[in-house]
Design goal:
This protein is mostly helical. The chain contains three helices and two strands; from the N terminus they run αααββ. It folds into two domains: about 35 residues, no CATH class; about 40 residues, no CATH class.
Length: about 100
């Protein structure tokens, strides 16, 4: 049964956890109050940044190696490589499956 949603959120675009929260609120508070409360909560959640802070070292490695991989000069096999620090050097070895 399709329920009318408030103008603040689209029910079809919600993920599983958000739908569970909305349905729980509807059971507890009723549809009208729950839609309003969920809409306010959803607006506050959307303002928070979802991405974690970018690791500067990982970004530098990615920016350096990606053009080489696209040109075909570098091949990265499945499983990739492990990069770690050694005594005054960088150790690159294949990751074990």
């Amino acid at each position: 049964m399709a329920r009318k949603s408030s103008g603040k959120f689209d029910e079809n675009s919600l993920n599983k956890g958000q739908l569970r929260k909305l349905n729980a609120l509807r059971k507890f508070l009723g549809a009208d109050i729950a839609n309003k409360a969920f809409g306010e909560w959803y607006e506050k959640q959307a303002k928070k940044p979802d991405s974690a802070p970018v690791d500067a070292n990982a970004a530098l490695i990615t920016n350096t190696l990606e053009p080489l991989a696209k040109q075909g000069k570098l091949r990265i096999p499945r499983g990739g490589y492990l990069v770690r620090r050694g005594r005054g050097r960088v150790i690159v070895e294949r990751a074990r499956p």
